């Protein structure tokens, strides 16, 4: 505990830093969802929030520090465990294959997002909220960009909007795919600004099969809505299935624009 203690101004308490600026890391449960929150120091107001969704078979801890530069600009960076991941692996239905496990996670994570946003508003006030996600988290980010108008901007990384999933057989998951598939329902995304970023060497989502048709669907939708500038697509040379530093920096610029 550091409350009530004083520190020498030339050699203060060692804390997490981003660019020389200290920030805090807290664990909270928001609407039943375990989260880590990176935020400005005590006494500094939160002016905006960024929800960061991780990929399949990962957990919130893997995103610590990735977007912490936002804290120096007065943002809270909120890292939830997606459904069925991290602290929540015991919630899975029996008998799911690997792809059904991923999509049940996406479906549940999308369903609980409005309550998480409510909890964020109760915690920080009615601040603007941006959403980003990588891989499976990119499925969530795209869906929230279309369905949740409290999302000010969204960035979907190393992901796809094609959602062709022959291994998914459960009726409720097939229904979710049909109702939310981005290349089919891209018209619901405008006017929310959206960034789609991919690596040109991604073996999980090859560019021509995933990024190209997804970007084309969004470009058409945003042009039809009269806001073509609202959609941005970026391809990063040599990048495989990971969030690269340049990709992360593109997200920061997009959110701070």
Structure explained in plain terms:
The mean pLDDT is 95. The chain is 31% helix and 21% strand. A hairpin with a 2-residue loop joins β1 (17-18) and β2. The strands form two sheets. An eight-stranded mixed β-sheet has the order 3-4-6-5-7-8-9-10, with helices on both faces. A two-stranded antiparallel sheet has the order 1-2. The chain is globular. It is of the alpha/beta class and 257 residues long. The protein has a domain at 87-256: Alpha/Beta hydrolase fold, catalytic domain (Rossmann fold), CATH 3.40.50. α1 packs across α2 (136-147).
Q: Helix and strand string, N-terminal first?
A: EEEEEEHEHEHHEHEH
Percent range of helical residues? 25-40%
Shape summary:
globular
Global structural class:
alpha/beta
Note poorly predicted spans.
none
What is the quaternary state of this protein? Answer: single chain
- Please tally the β strands and state the result: 10
- Major sheet summary line: 8 strands, mixed
CATH topology of the domain at 87-256: Rossmann fold
How does CATH name the architecture of the domain at 87-256?
A: 3-Layer(aba) Sandwich
The name of the CATH superfamily of the domain at 87-256 reads: Alpha/Beta hydrolase fold, catalytic domain
Q: In percent terms, what proportion of residues is strand?
A: 15-25%
Q: Please state the CA-atom Rg, rounded to the nearest Å.
A: 19 Å
Mean pLDDT: 95
At the first level of CATH, what is the class of the domain at 87-256?
Alpha Beta
Q: Strands of the largest sheet, in order across it? A: 3-4-6-5-7-8-9-10
Helical segment count? 6
The first-to-last residue Cα distance is 37 Å
